[in-house]
Amino acid sequence: MDDLDHIPQTFLGLPDSGTGRAAARVAVLPVPFEATTSYGSGTRDGPAAILAASRQVETYVADLGMDLAEAPIHTLPPVAPDLSAPDAMDRRLLAVARPLVAEGLFVLALGGEHSITAPLVAAVAEAHGELGVLHVDAHLDLRDTFEGTPHSHACAMRRVVEAGHRTVHVGIRSACPEEVALAEARSLPVFWARDCVAGAGWIDRAVAALGDPVYVSVDCDGLDPSVIRSVGTPEPGGLGWWPTMALLDRVFAERRVLGADVVELAPAGDRASDFAAAKLAVRLAALAVRG
After folding, report:
1. For residue 6, is it within any domain?
2. Coil, strand or helix: which one is 192?
3. 32, 47 in Cβ contact below 8 A?
4. What CA–CA distance (Å, rounded) separates 230 from 220?
5. How distant, in Å, are the alpha carbons of 153, 195, 258 from that of 192?
6. Residue 262 within any structural domain of the chain
7. DSSP of 62-83, one letter per residue?
8. Which residue from 249, 221, 248 is spatially nearest to 237, judged by alpha carbons?
């Protein structure tokens, strides 16, 4: 018998008996969807890799002083991909997330490509109104279309902006002229990674730029490849681990965060990347439980 056989196949390996949906505060939703990746592929395997790595993450989050061993976290079955139409997955994911939000659950989605964010934001917005969306990423994702579709991962934040939400973009280090022009025209706060690395105070400004309530979307390529390198486009010069944690801690402390996702991990046999993505998801879950 493998040493891991006794650990439940759930987020953090939490026992099913203690994480039933009826008693949960956080619902972990795997979304293994991949349809529009444009360079490296494999994001469909991201949720499974994060869940597997999370089973090796300590339930005690030392710097937060929290033990999640009996936390009200429930792992849901993966959402089956739907490729029958360009917007079919959007509709399926909205239908899955809507009742979870209505039950008062904090939905922590594990992607999958970044296109899953727009329907998740829509589900939260249906219940809570206009949102501030913290977007951690190497890319602005504000293109109107990319490679022939408006449902591309490269258009994820454009769809969110068009739905009327306030987006704040952190860790950016790659964009096209169309995206920069849109950000300037709409006065969207963009925190370029070079500025985040170079000076202090950017976290204060980023949190201040968010409205309330908030949705958090973290693309794994927002972090530097020295932290997570198994992504489709590993842009150099990204955010470090502890600055990212400090940003998330501040947002949860000062804003009402209602949902989150971790997307774009593309597993490639690199345990360090899988484990870091899992630790990131665990941090979000811990903050949601504490909040």
Report:
1. no
2. strand
3. yes
4. 8
5. 20, 5, 25
6. yes
7. GGGTEE-TT-SEEEPPPPPP--
8. 221
Tokens 């958090």 appear where?
216
Give whole-number Cα distances, 102 to 74, 95, 124, in Å. 16, 11, 9
Q: Would you say how long the chain is, in residues?
A: 291
Tokens of 256: 């009402």
Burial of 83 (0-12, 13-18, 19+ CB in 10 A): exposed
The span from the CA of 71 to the CA of 24, in Å, is: 8
Cβ partners under 8 Å of residue 125, min gap 6: 131, 163, 165
Query: Which structural domain, as residue segments, surrounds residue 251?
Result: 11-290
User: Is residue 4 in some structural domain?
Assistant: no
Structure tokens that stand for 238 in this block: 């990204």
Q: Which of 1, 108, 5, 21 is nearest to 55 (CA)?
A: 5
Low-confidence ranges of the chain (pLDDT < 70): 1-6, 16-19, 36, 38, 40, 86, 147
CB 103: neighbour CB atoms within 10 A? Answer: 13
Calpha distance 221→233 (Å, rounded): 7
2 assigned to some structural domain: no
19's tokens: 């994480």
How many whole angstroms separate alpha carbon 229 and alpha carbon 219?
Answer: 12
- pLDDT reported for residue 85: 78
pLDDT of residue 3: 52
pTM of the model: 0.94
Give the CATH number of the domain where residue 145 resides: 3.40.800.10
Q: Which position has the token pair 């950017």?
A: 202
Helix, strand, or coil here: 38?
Answer: coil
